[in-house]
């Protein structure tokens, strides 16, 4: 690949999605961008990048960025975070929010909806205990295509077999020909919005829980730090932030602490400590 093409797409991914593309990962370009080149009747990926670089086209740039995004997701992915949510964190919030009767959850980087629907199913299991409460799940992703799929709530046999226990499939889904459709009760708990984490989150208000799992893994460190700041400022002082178990948390050091006994879960530091460490 020509240096000018690599520099172009590296800058495009960084500015639009915060993704850092190193030369070692350049091999991904061929496989992910070839379908776009074919659909646009271009000879190859080099021709595609030359067109995008020399004749700016916002739609084409967005298509390239979306193709490079990692879309790995499944219902109840990794299991442990959902057990912690259901067995420890949700009961804790039910006690601490009893007066308000409200819990707000944000699922950032929700992809095609499996994670927020998994959360909603666990909340639904406590429907009787939460009678009269307002419990909402806001799910966002920068991909309009992913959000459209998530809103429909239709999943293939392969998708529901990945992580979804059979009892929850029978309880919360209906068979529609070759697809499975999430039921209205669970779907109604989740609102989907197209949103780029690089744009901040102050407009959404405060959340009691934020899931941002496996979203920041390939982001540039400077971008990642600014997103950590944004997330911490949107989280309630006694709230919880879920990250991917293997994700680095260096940018959280002066704002968050690991929640005691929980894996991949963080809580805000006391405000006076945070201010003392940020000047």
Question: How would you describe what is shown here?
Answer:
Helix content is 44%, strand content 19%. The protein is of the alpha/beta class and 279 residues long. The chain folds into 2 domains: 3-68, Chemotaxis Receptor Methyltransferase Cher, domain 1, CATH 1.10.155; 80-278, 3-Layer(aba) Sandwich (Rossmann fold), CATH 3.40.50. A 7-stranded mixed β-sheet has the order 6-2-1-7-8-10-9. α1 packs across α4. The longest helix has 17 residues, at 80-96. It is globular. The model is unreliable at 272-279 (pLDDT under 50).
Summarize the SSE layout with pairings.
Elements: H1 3-17, H2 27-39, H3 45-54, H4 58-68, H5 80-96, E1 102-108, H6 114-124, E2 134-141, H7 144-152, E3 154-156, H8 157-161, H9 166-172, E4 173-176, E5 179-182, H10 184-187, E6 190-194, E7 207-212, H11 221-234, E8 235-243, E9 256-258, E10 265-268, H12 271-278
Parallel strand pairs: 1-2, 1-7, 2-6, 7-8
Antiparallel strand pairs: 3-5, 4-5, 8-10, 9-10
List keywords for this structure.
disordered C terminus, seven-stranded mixed sheet, 279 residues, 12 helices, alpha/beta, single chain, 2 domains, three-stranded antiparallel sheet, 10 strands, globular, Chemotaxis Receptor Methyltransferase Cher, domain 1, Rossmann fold
Q: Tell me the count of domains.
A: 2
> At the third CATH level, what is the topology name of the largest domain?
Rossmann fold
Q: What class would the helix/strand composition place it in? A: alpha/beta
Query: CATH homologous superfamily of the largest domain, by name?
Result: Vaccinia Virus protein VP39
Q: Which CATH-level-2 architecture of the largest domain?
A: 3-Layer(aba) Sandwich
Largest sheet: 7 strands, mixed
Series of H and E elements:
HHHHHEHEHEHHEEHEEHEEEH
Number of helical regions: 12
């Amino acid at each position: 690949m020509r240096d000018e093409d690599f520099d172009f797409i590296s800058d495009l991914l960084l500015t639009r999605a915060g993704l850092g593309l190193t030369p070692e990962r350049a091999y991904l370009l061929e496989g992910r961008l070839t379908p776009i080149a074919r659909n646009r009747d271009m000879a190859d990926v080099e021709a595609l990048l030359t067109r995008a670089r020399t004749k700016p086209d916002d739609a084409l740039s967005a298509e390239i960025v979306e193709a490079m995004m990692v879309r790995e997701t499944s219902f109840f992915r990794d299991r442990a975070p959902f057990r912690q949510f259901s067995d420890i964190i949700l009961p804790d919030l039910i006690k601490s929010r009893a007066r308000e009767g409200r819990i707000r959850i944000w699922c950032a980087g929700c992809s095609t909806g499996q994670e927020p629907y998994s959360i909603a199913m666990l909340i639904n299991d406590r429907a009787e205990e939460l009678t009269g409460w307002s419990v909402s799940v806001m799910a966002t992703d920068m991909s309009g295509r992913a959000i459209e799929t998530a809103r429909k709530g239709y999943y293939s046999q392969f998708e529901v077999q990945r992580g979804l226990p059979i009892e929850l499939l029978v309880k919360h889904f209906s068979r529609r020909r070759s697809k499975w459709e999430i039921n209205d009760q669970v779907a109604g708990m989740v609102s989907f919005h197209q949103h780029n984490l690089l744009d901040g989150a102050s407009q959404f208000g405060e959340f009691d829980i934020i899931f941002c799992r496996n979203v920041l893994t390939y982001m540039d460190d400077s971008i990642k730090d600014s997103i950590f700041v944004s997330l911490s400022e949107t989280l309630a002082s006694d709230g919880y932030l879920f990250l991917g178990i293997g994700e680095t948390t260096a940018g959280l050091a002066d704002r968050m602490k690991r929640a005691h006994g929980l894996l991949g879960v963080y809580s805000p530091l006391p405000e006076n400590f945070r201010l003392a460490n940020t000047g």
